[in-house]
Every structure is written in structure tokens, then in C-alpha cells.
Amino acid sequence: MVDDALKAQLQPLREKIDALDAQLLDLLNQRAAVALQVGEVKHAFDAGGPVLKPEREASLVRHLQQINGGPFPSAAIPSVWTEIVSACRGLESPLTVAYLGPQGSFSEQAAFEHFGHAVVPMRCESFDEIFRSVESGQAQVGMVPVENSTEGAVSRTLDLLLNSSLKVMGERSLRIQHCLMTQSGTMHGVTRVMAHPQALAQCQGWLAKRYPDLPWEAAPSNSEAARLAAQDASIAAIAGASAAGAWGLQFVAEGIQDDPHNRTRFLAVGKDVVAPSGNDKTSLILAVPNRSGAVYDMLAPLAENGVSMTRLESRPARTGQWEYYFYIDILGHAADEAVGRAVAQLKARAAFFKLLGSYPTQ
Ligand SMILES: O=C(O)C(=O)C[C@]1(C(=O)O)C=C[C@@H](O)C=C1
């Protein structure tokens, strides 16, 4: 009786949802057709030029969040539209994204969250291979981790940014939840724990407490550790939840990172300069002479032009002279007046200067 009354009320509502979904699909198809036209126009003006326009993607999502009247949650807009834009972009031209694999890695998650799923994945074995793949044109963009909230900078990425001609085209911050996983979901017969050294470091307190006698072994990536664990019952892997799904492993424990707020920031790198989106960041590398007050002097143009710095990281210049490269992120686009002025002044003062790129803030 109650069931019948419930069904009678639900049915017309579900019919409404079906009709709205059909309208949405029709609109999505219209959108896809227009995106194809955009692709043709771009091709006519710049054959072989980039289809990916990060500034346009970021600003259209922000605009929708601003005009959203609800009740559809504004927080859901970025992920929904990232997939819509990704599918339309994929129709224009396939986007190949290089990142640290294998399947199920955090880098893969970052790449999909940033570019959507309508991309061609290129799973690489090292950060160097990612940069090489993009430099050689095998992939249009790469996704690389640059800093972790527990472990700090990813030094190999910083070194590659210094020496490569690639530009920073975007950023993506991901919450990192590590899980311990084995074939059986127990630690029975397990003789070692494998993961990327960064993950082992991020879980060291938990491991020392729960499994103080189990040796650790470094793997090139967490998902590679998961792949190995899928072949060898004596290995427990630390990796993200999606790696368990990708390699058919069971969880022994979830969320084992020592810092529950553990996050990793990834950068999208590619060959193209990104135009202003209205809410941007600029990354640069500077070096100053090894004398007192040099760092203070170096940063003065930022304060003088009212430009905010969001990150300052140093890395030894390997000259043996206690000289450093400074990796700096500032708010704003290099094409903005104040940022442009500050950047020009920084360049004039620095012993070394490299503009890594301006890109939309996440
Ligand atoms: O506006 C463009 O340049 C497009 O190609 C369209 C579109 C979209 O689907 O909205 C797709 C890819 C670009 O990265 C940006 C936006």
C-alpha cells in the first residue's frame, strides 16, 4: 500500500528527471558540435597549434560557479565541467598526458582530476621520462608532483624545471590518503613493505608503531609497489586506494599517513604560454649572489609592487659555494601590470632568472 503510494509520487518525478537528462544530453551534443567548430577555427589560424587553453577552461568553470543559483552545489561544478570540457576537447584533438605510472598512481588521479578522463594516458617510469616525453612532443602535457605538505619539495621535479624548456601550465592539489595493501588483505606471510620513498616517509610513524620489524624497500612509485605486490604475496604495498582497484589488492589498513591532512601539489607542464584567466599564479626561479642581504634585496620588488608571494623554496645550486636557486610562486599573471613590473625588476637584480610560467590558480 505504502509502496504503491510512494511509486505513484516517485514516477512523475523520475519522468521529469529523465526528460531533463535528455535535454542535458541534447545540450551537451550542441556544446560538443560548437567545440568542434572552435577546433576548426583554431586549426585554420594555427594549424598544429595547441587545442588546450587552460585559461579558458578555468575561467568558464569559475564563471559558472559565480552565476550558480543552486541547489546544484557550486563545489560540484569543477569536476562536472572538467569532464564536459575534457570530452569536448578530446573531440577537437586527443590530449596526451604523461605522468608517473603505472595505473592507479596519485599522479594519474591528479592528471584525471585536472584534465578529465577524455585524455590519452602516457604512464612513465620516472619524472625525467615525463619531461622528455613532453619535450619531444610525444605528450602535449605532463603532470608532476612538486611539493608535499609533510615531506616538502620533490627535488627531482625542481631540478627538471630548472633545466627544461617546459613551462608550468597549471596546478592541482590532491589529498593524499595512503593505504597498506596485500593480496589477501592480511599481513600473513608478508616479509617487506614497498612504496615510493616519499610515501614510506609519510607513513613512517604508523609503520614503526604497527610493524616495527618489517623492513622497507623503495619502489619507483607506489603503484609500481602495488603492481609488484599483486605478483608476490610476501610484499605489502603502500599506495592510494585506486591502486588497490587497479591491481586487485585488498586493504590491510586505510589512511595510514602520519599527517591526516597530507596533500601533494602537482604541476601541469607543457610547451605553451597560458594567457591570463583572471585568477592566476606565476612561478619563477631566481639565484642571487652569495652576500649578506641578497635575499632581502631580491624580494624587495615584490613588496614594492604589492605582489604576494605564496611559496619560497630553495635548492642548492651545486657550485659548492653555498649558493642557492630560489623557487618562487607569486599571485597574478606575468602579463598583469604590477606582476610584470615586479618580474622585470626581479630579473634585473638576479644573478639567474627563469620564468617558469603563469597559470590559473586551482
Ligand atoms: O574555447 C576553446 O578554445 C575550446 O577549444 C573549447 C573548450 C571547451 O570545451 O570549452 C575545449 C578546450 C579548450 O581547452 C578550452 C575550451
TrEMBL record:
Residues 96-271 form the Prephenate dehydratase domain. PROSITE patterns: ACT, CHORISMATE_MUT_2, PREPHENATE_DEHYDR_2, PREPHENATE_DEHYDR_3. Its EC number is 4.2.1.51, 5.4.99.5. Keywords: Amino-acid biosynthesis, Aromatic amino acid biosynthesis, Cytoplasm, Isomerase, Lyase, Multifunctional enzyme, Phenylalanine biosynthesis. It comes from the Bacteria. SMART domains: CM_2 (SM00830). InterPro entries: ACT-like_dom_sf (IPR045865), ACT_dom (IPR002912), Chor_mutase/pphenate_deHydtase (IPR008242), Chorismate_II_sf (IPR036263), CM_dom_sf (IPR036979), CM_II_prokaryot (IPR002701), G/b/e-P-prot_chorismate_mutase (IPR010957), Preph_deHydtase (IPR001086). One of its GO terms (molecular function) is prephenate dehydratase activity. It is found in: Cytoplasm. The keyword Oxidoreductase does not apply. Residues 283-360 form the ACT domain. Residues 4-96 form the Chorismate mutase domain. Pathway: Metabolic intermediate biosynthesis; prephenate biosynthesis; prephenate from chorismate: step 1/1; Amino-acid biosynthesis; L-phenylalanine biosynthesis; phenylpyruvate from prephenate: step 1/1. It catalyses: prephenate + H(+) = 3-phenylpyruvate + CO2 + H2O; chorismate = prephenate. Its main location: cytoplasm. Catalyzes the Claisen rearrangement of chorismate to prephenate and the decarboxylation/dehydration of prephenate to phenylpyruvate. This is Bifunctional chorismate mutase/prephenate dehydratase. It comes from Mesopusillimonas faecipullorum.
